[in-house]
């Protein structure tokens, strides 16, 4: 049978989602814990591969197994074998045709930036930080230029292995919540470091180092070498996946609060 699960994790404790030779990938921890419940090895497939230091509020994955367990066992039993910084939120049996990655219609991320002269202590490792005041209005206007289908080469990591840089952005919003600035994005898929590179450029806009037209020119020029530096991973959260209702999955999206 095939089981889908929703997963939450604190990325600072891992070297990204993907399995690592040293066992420090989120995939390694989850596969080991599920195997303890199943009594057999399993292979996890996820909707998206988060980088080292990136968190997830709702990663979605699936695995196949020859054993039957109640959904509560896949949740509570697996969590009993996981460290406290990663948790399975839900589990359900899905049709054989379902695939966590290939059945996904869209992915959602948020980047949480603490904008204050002093770096946060209680939120260390959980939010990004910028020390100078940022002007939110031009950042909001610049983010709108990202909507729709574009070649995002200007915001793509040099080591990105995606076959095409073209993505369709469904949501690109910037909101202020007290000392925090929250960037929300949804697209059919994302390129490696795309959001961190976009956030770095939007911070330049908020500083006045880039105006809105210059930000648009970065996108149009498709040249990563002309773009601002990649922002830190600390504040980046994978917040959910959009699937067709036919798969009858539990809610697969949440938000940073």
Automatic annotation (TrEMBL):
SUPFAM superfamilies in the record: Pseudouridine synthase
The entry's keywords: Isomerase, tRNA processing
Active-site residues (renumbered): 51 (nucleophile)
GO molecular function, one term: tRNA pseudouridine(38-40) synthase activity
Entry-linked CDD domains: PseudoU_synth_EcTruA
Pfam short name (any one): PseudoU_synth_1
Residue span, Pseudouridine synthase I TruA alpha/beta domain: 9-102, 142-244
InterPro entries attached to this UniProt entry: PsdUridine_synth_cat_dom_sf, PsdUridine_synth_TruA, PsdUridine_synth_TruA_a/b_dom, PsdUridine_synth_TruA_C, TruA/RsuA/RluB/E/F_N
Catalytic activity field: uridine(38/39/40) in tRNA = pseudouridine(38/39/40) in tRNA
Enzyme class at the top of the EC tree: isomerase
Complex formation: Homodimer.
Family of this protein: Belongs to the tRNA pseudouridine synthase TruA family.
UniProt function note: Formation of pseudouridine at positions 38, 39 and 40 in the anticodon stem and loop of transfer RNAs.
PANTHER family named in the record: PSEUDOURIDYLATE SYNTHASE, TRNA PSEUDOURIDINE SYNTHASE-LIKE 1
Stated name of the protein: tRNA pseudouridine synthase A
Organism: Methylophilus flavus
Underlying gene: truA
């Amino acid at each position: 049978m095939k089981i889908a699960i929703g997963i939450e994790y604190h990325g600072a404790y891992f070297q990204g989602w993907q399995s690592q030779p040293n066992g420090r990938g989120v995939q390694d921890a989850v596969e080991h814990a599920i195997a303890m419940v199943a009594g057999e090895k399993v292979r996890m497939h996820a909707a998206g591969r988060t980088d080292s230091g990136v968190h997830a509020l709702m990663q979605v994955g699936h695995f196949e197994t020859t054993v039957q367990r109640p959904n509560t066992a896949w949740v509570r039993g697996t969590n009993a074998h996981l460290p406290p910084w990663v948790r399975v939120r839900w589990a359900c049996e899905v049709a054989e045709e379902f695939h966590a990655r290939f059945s996904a219609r869209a992915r959602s991320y948020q980047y949480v930036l603490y904008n204050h002269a002093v770096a946060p202590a209680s939120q260390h490792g959980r939010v990004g930080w910028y020390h100078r005041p940022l002007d939110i209005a031009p950042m909001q206007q610049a983010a709108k230029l990202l909507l729709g289908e574009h070649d995002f080469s200007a915001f793509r990591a040099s080591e990105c292995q995606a076959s095409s840089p073209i993505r369709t952005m469904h949501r690109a919003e910037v909101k202020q919540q007290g000392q925090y600035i929250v960037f929300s994005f949804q697209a059919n898929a994302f390129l490696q470091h795309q959001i961190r590179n976009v956030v770095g450029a939007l911070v330049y806009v908020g500083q006045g180092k880039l105006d809105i037209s210059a930000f648009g020119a970065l996108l149009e020029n498709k040249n990563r070498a002309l773009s601002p530096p990649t922002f830190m991973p600390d504040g980046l959260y994978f917040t959910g996946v959009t699937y067709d209702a036919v798969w009858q999955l539990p809610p697969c999206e949440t938000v940073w609060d």
